């Protein structure tokens, strides 16, 4: 029993080593995980306090309409309740999009490197993949992506800031793309790192959903909100796209704890501001450090930096892990001689800089 033909070519998601295993393998008591772009400040204390006081009816199915969170979020974003869908992480919405919009003979257009799940789920639904390399600074080449669209294109996957490069395209570039993109092509704008953008990089993508009825914006509580372990994300689009996706969505796809936690997290915007400010400060400082070291890096508007390493990223990864720092080697992301580093707390980043300096010195 092997399943569909396409599955012979695909592998299950291989996660990085768990912190506990690294602690044991390297006999370390202090580990700094900078590999999955999680929030180093955790999540809002208001969430943990409110959840302690909650009485969950775990024997009852969750609210399949995610009503309370839907009300809170649609008010905050000034959108209609019919214009939003929730998923078990925005990653589930990526799956729903593939299942809903890809038919045999379809193709999808995306950047490379980008978030790998677009390709994975598109392949499973039988799509042909058209990948357009990002430019030297890690930006999507939107003009080349446009030129690749044809009559069989079902979805264009856009990711801004792009994971793993970190580069975010401008509002002008995006609206110009939408003006030229055929209306029959679904444009997915994945803004998983939206809360990390500096104000001048904001796309105001939600305002575009009426002018461009073929756009869906994906956001998540996993990154800046720090709720990755609970799995909840959302998509915002014109009501007809949402209605289509809702037919494919499982009836109870987000769980009761995640719904509550996300509602409380939303109320603490101070936490998000703090996360954004600390991240930006530490990002800039890390960039200054790399410049002094003579290492390059890609532009970043997110909570991670793709660093150009003088030798294989795997080598740097292996060196760092001995000191308790877990980063993502670029070889696993399709960009050799890089590492993707989540921006951590100031004191951890200082220690990381010491270890990187030492590594560079030993390289000679
Ligand atoms: C982390 C990430 C996601 C997935 O987030 P979940 O909501 O946890 O599923 C989606 N897109 C990008 C680009 C990401 O980096």
Automatic annotation (TrEMBL):
It is an enzyme of class 2 (transferase). The modification N6-(pyridoxal phosphate)lysine is found at residue 223. CDD domains: AAT_like. It comes from the Bacteria. Transmembrane segments: none annotated. Keywords: Amino-acid biosynthesis, Aminotransferase, Histidine biosynthesis, Pyridoxal phosphate, Transferase. Its cofactor is pyridoxal 5'-phosphate. It catalyses: L-histidinol phosphate + 2-oxoglutarate = 3-(imidazol-4-yl)-2-oxopropyl phosphate + L-glutamate. Residues 31-353 form the Aminotransferase class I/classII large domain. One of its GO terms (molecular function) is transaminase activity. Pfam families: Aminotran_1_2. Its EC number is 2.6.1.9. Pathway: Amino-acid biosynthesis; L-histidine biosynthesis; L-histidine from 5-phospho-alpha-D-ribose 1-diphosphate: step 7/9. Homodimer. Belongs to the class-II pyridoxal-phosphate-dependent aminotransferase family. Histidinol-phosphate aminotransferase subfamily. NCBIfam families: hisC. This is Histidinol-phosphate aminotransferase. The gene is hisC_2.
């Amino acid at each position: 029993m092997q399943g569909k033909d396409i599955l012979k070519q695909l592998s299950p998601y291989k996660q990085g080593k768990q912190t506990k295993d690294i602690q044991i393998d390297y006999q370390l008591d202090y580990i700094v995980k900078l590999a999955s772009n999680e929030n180093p400040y955790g999540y809002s204390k208001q969430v943990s306090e409110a959840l302690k006081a909650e009485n969950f009816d775990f024997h009852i199915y969750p609210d399949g309409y995610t009503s309370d969170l839907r009300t809170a979020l649609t008010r905050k974003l000034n959108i209609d309740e019919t214009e939003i869908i929730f998923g078990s992480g925005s990653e589930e919405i990526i799956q729903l999009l593939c299942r809903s919009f890809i038919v045999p003979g379809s193709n999808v257009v995306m950047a490379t490197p980008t978030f790998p799940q677009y390709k994975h789920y598109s392949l499973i639904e039988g799509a042909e993949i058209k990948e357009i390399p990002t430019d030297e600074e890690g930006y999507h080449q939107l003009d080349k992506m446009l030129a690749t669209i044809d009559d069989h294109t079902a979805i264009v996957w856009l990711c801004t800031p792009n994971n793993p490069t970190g580069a975010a395209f401008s509002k002008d570039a995006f609206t110009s793309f939408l003006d030229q993109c055929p209306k029959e092509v679904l444009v997915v704008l994945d803004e998983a790192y939206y809360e990390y953008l500096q104000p001048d990089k904001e796309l105001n993508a939600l305002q575009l959903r009426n002018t461009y009825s073929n756009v869906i914006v994906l956001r998540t509580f996993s990154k800046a909100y720090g709720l990755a372990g609970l799995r909840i994300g959302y998509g915002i689009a014109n009501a007809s796209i949402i209605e289509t996706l809702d037919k494919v969505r499982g009836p109870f796809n987000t769980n009761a704890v995640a719904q509550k936690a996300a509602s409380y997290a939303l109320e603490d915007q101070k936490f998000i501001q703090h996360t954004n400010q600390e991240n930006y400060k530490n990002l800039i400082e890390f960039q200054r450090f790399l410049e002094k070291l003579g290492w390059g890096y890609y532009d970043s508007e997110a909570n991670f930096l793709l660093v150009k390493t003088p030798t294989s990223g795997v080598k740097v990864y292996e060196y760092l892990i001995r000191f308790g720092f877990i980063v993502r080697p670029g070889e696993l992301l399709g960009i050799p001689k890089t590492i993707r580093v989540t921006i951590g707390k100031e004191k951890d980043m200082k220690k990381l800089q010491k270890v990187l300096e030492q590594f560079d010195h030993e390289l000679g």
